[in-house]
Amino acid sequence: MSHSEAMNSYSIVAEGLTKRFGGAHALDGFDLTVREGTLCGLLGPNGAGKTTAVRILATLLRADGGRATVAGLDVAAQPAKVRQVIGLASQEPAVDEILTGRENLVLWGRLYHLDAKRAARRADELLEQFGLTEAAGKRIKHYSGGMRRRLDLAATFIQAPRVLFLDEPTTGLDPRNRNEVWQAVRALVTDGSTVLLTTQYLDEADQLADQIAVLREGRVIADDTPDRLKSSIGGDRLDLVLRDQRDLQEAGDVLAAFGPPVADPDARRLTAPVADRMHALGQVMRELEAKGIEVEDVALRRPTLDEVFLKVTA
Amino acid sequence: MTHVLSDGWVIARAHLLHWVRNPAAILSGLLYPIVMVLLFGYVFGSAMAVAGAGENYREYLMPGMFGQTMAVGITTTLIVVTTQASRGVTDRYRSMPVSQTGVVLGRAIADMAGSTLELTILIACGMAVGWSWHNGPLNALAAMGLLLLLRFSLIWVGIFAGLKLTPEAASASWMIMLPLTMVANTFVSPAQMPGWMGALAEWNPLSATVAACRQLFGNPGFAGESWAAQHAVLLAVAWPVAITLVFLPLSARAYRRLSR
To answer: Is A138 an interface residue toward B (CB < 8 Å)?
Structure first.
């Protein structure tokens, strides 16, 4: 693919980014392309380089090697232009404790060079959108963690950024607050923004992402749609819950004919990948019955992202 | 470039709003020099014979207090800079189309406004304990200008160090600043210190500002044998200019190096 093509259809293009801190490689050949108007979830264990990647793409850090464009602009050569079209929410809400919620948003709006009137109007719109209208006049030091996070996110929405970077936007939020953040992010993607979101919550990536990139030791080791990633680790999963823990070994031998079983002794559960679902289900049940092994529950299901994650990062 | 002034003003105003909201912070900052004036003016001062201080120790003391307050003001800069860096505020500024010069300008405006207010209140406090200037208002204004010039030069030291330190270290910096402001002519004459320490005190940039202020205010105790003491006004300009020339580029470089 030529670069001009990439600029038209991709909002984020990273090619072979490297970054060292001291002797350690934080990024070691990081490649990623994210299509315009989609949300990419960046997953990876702690220390895999997620935050470093985001900071390079958001012009906060310079890469040692490789190149990257955001909205078609080179992050190293045109950082000032990149800053015009991006929004960034870091892990810590960057809000001013002593100002009120509304004053914070007006302040950031003014720094995006809106005039006083427009900054005030935009602040009110965002307070409404993020469910903070009632708390608008309260100082941030009286806000809960979830409210701070929503206000911080609201600040990144001031300009309806073309590309939004969210570094663990829902860490520490309760489910209701998390849902509100998700809705706001979805609305932004619907309006045409591109979002790169790092998260430790696989269900968050599953809920929001059109594309998931899994990072390990500074490289992308898996990159696809959530559905295809799940299929990539081999078809469906057969879950068995046995009545008696002592049967685990024998039942495991039966399942091993289809795929390597994983046992969870405390839950008396066995899980194995199966290729031909109905055939496998019938045969496993017949053999267990013949051996006199009692089954409490049985289920066929698609792999979860957790299983993808554990498999590819192992 | 067009946004330097407007961004600087927006940021300065947010800082200034902090004081309006949190006057306790400014009051506690002021309480320290006022307590020191009372302690040194009445408790220690009455038992001390300071060479060249004349009859009224408080006439000698006040310019020292003004100078010390300006010097210790660096901790305000330090704490704000480190706190903003650790809370992600600095990162947000850097990811926005904000003029980076404007961010620093806003910081400088807020710090200078704060120190001007502190100095004004401290001067009133000095007058209440019997201090005053004797060489007319123009010389007095020149002295205040020198005090604020010292404070201005220390903004850049504060930004440079603030980008390298944690907020915890910045809070502890006060403990280093205090002795640095005392090995000077602030409270006693360097002539009475051990030789090596006296030399250090003579050449302390703070001493130059304080001696120049005593001279301009017409307070006792500015004269001395050393070259430094005899050229106090010259040094009171030269030191801050030199500090600014060194630390302004250094702080700009430290800021750029955040992206390393």
So the answer is: no
